[in-house]
């Protein structure tokens, strides 16, 4: 374990931390950055500790931060202090949180899923907005979903924006990334109902017969789901648009479906 203070912007660790804001460096290092005491406390309470804990000098004391620091040191991690101006360079925010952490990326394979662990799972196909992705993680936590399965080319769930939008759910939800041609055979190899938000011969979302484990899928923000994916679903559902808008935001649609399925699911 190591504890140190950094005073210069040119320090190699500062450059490493800043690099984690870019996808190519995250992929190379298989590490990601999370900031804020709430997010890091959620991680700690789920048994996940940062490899490097970064704190601003002159921060206000807090018992949760003291507990986090003690656990990181006990686990053999590093604790680093730096001026708030340097921390702002690391996080890319003018008014950064007083604490951030470097975490190892999780195992995101389908083999990591126990489909019977929850009655509801969220699925997003080609979701490109990291804010939407983080919101779906947060929704999954709120409804007690097992996790979020990202299909095909989605935004990076370990980006600073997605992690921040998840409000800590990145540490409470199972996260899987897989192409469709791997996900569909996996799903059909065991129990699981695939439900899509769709306009293709749909059932009203309040009339559908949801069964567990239920996999609720939403498509790309602008293009929706590919036709072949929709046809492969067990149920296609739609939500009424009572105003001028012709669709809901993808993450919001997923939330509406999740709460409806949670209320009506047949185990």
What radius of gyration results from the CA coordinates? 20 Å
Secondary-structure content class:
alpha/beta
Number of domains: 2
> Total number of helical segments?
10
Write the CATH homologous superfamily of the largest domain: SPOUT methyltransferase, trefoil knot domain
CATH topology of the largest domain: Alpha/beta knot
Termini separation comes to: 48 Å
Q: Classify the beta-strand content into a percent band.
A: 15-25%
Return the CATH class of the largest domain: Alpha Beta
**Average pLDDT, to the nearest integer?**
91
Using brief descriptors, characterize the structure shown.
7-stranded parallel β-sheet, Alpha/beta knot, alpha/beta, 5-stranded mixed β-sheet, 35% helix, 267 residues
Topology record:
Layout: E1 2-6, H1 12-19, H2 23-29, E2 31-35, H3 37-45, E3 52-56, H4 63-74, E4 78-82, H5 84-91, E5 99-104, E6 120-125, H6 130-143, E7 147-151, H7 160-165, E8 174-178, H8 180-188, E9 193-197, E10 203-204, E11 214-218, H9 227-231, E12 235-238, H10 250-264
Parallel strand pairs: 1-4, 3-4, 6-7, 6-11, 7-8, 9-11, 9-12, 10-12
Antiparallel strand pairs: 2-5, 3-5
């Amino acid at each position: 374990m190591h504890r140190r203070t950094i005073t210069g912007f040119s320090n190699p660790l500062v450059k490493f931390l800043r690099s984690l804001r870019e996808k190519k460096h995250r992929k190379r290092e298989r590490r990601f950055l999370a900031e804020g005491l709430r997010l890091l406390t959620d991680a700690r309470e789920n048994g996940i500790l940062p490899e490097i804990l970064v704190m601003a000098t002159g921060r206000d004391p807090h018992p949760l931060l003291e507990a986090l620091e003690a656990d990181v040191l006990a686990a053999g991690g590093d604790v680093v202090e730096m001026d708030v101006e340097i921390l702002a360079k690391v996080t890319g925010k003018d008014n950064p949180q007083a604490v951030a952490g470097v975490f190892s990326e999780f195992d995101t394979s389908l083999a990591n899923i126990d489909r019977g662990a929850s009655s509801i799972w969220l699925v997003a196909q080609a979701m490109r907005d990291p804010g939407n992705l983080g919101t779906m993680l947060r929704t999954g936590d709120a409804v007690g979903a097992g996790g979020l399965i990202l299909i095909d080319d989605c935004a990076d769930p370990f980006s600073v924006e997605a992690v921040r939008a998840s409000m800590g759910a990145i540490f409470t939800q199972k996260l899987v990334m897989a192409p469709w041609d791997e996900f569909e055979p996996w799903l059909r190899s065991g129990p699981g109902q695939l439900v899509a938000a769709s306009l293709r011969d749909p059932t009203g979302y309040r009339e559908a017969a949801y069964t567990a484990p239920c996999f609720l899928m939403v498509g790309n923000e602008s293009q929706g789901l590919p036709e072949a994916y929709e046809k492969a679903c067990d149920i296609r559902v739609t939500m009424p648009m009572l105003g001028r808008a012709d669709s809901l935001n993808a993450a919001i649609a997923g939330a509406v479906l999740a709460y409806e399925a949670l209320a009506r699911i047949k185990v």
